[in-house]
Amino acid sequence: MKTKAVIFDLDGTLLNTLEDLAASINHALRENGYPERTIDEVRLFVGNGLGLLAQRALPDGKENPLYEKTLSDLRAYYASHSLVKTKPYDGILQMLEDLKKKNILTAIVSNKPDAQVKALSKIFFKDFMNPELCIGECEGVKRKPAPDSLLKVIKNLGFKKDECIYAGDSDVDIETAGNAGIKCISVSWGFRSRDFLMEHNAGTIIDRPDQLLQFLEY
Question: Across all residues in the chain, what is the average pLDDT?
Answer without folding.
Answer: 95
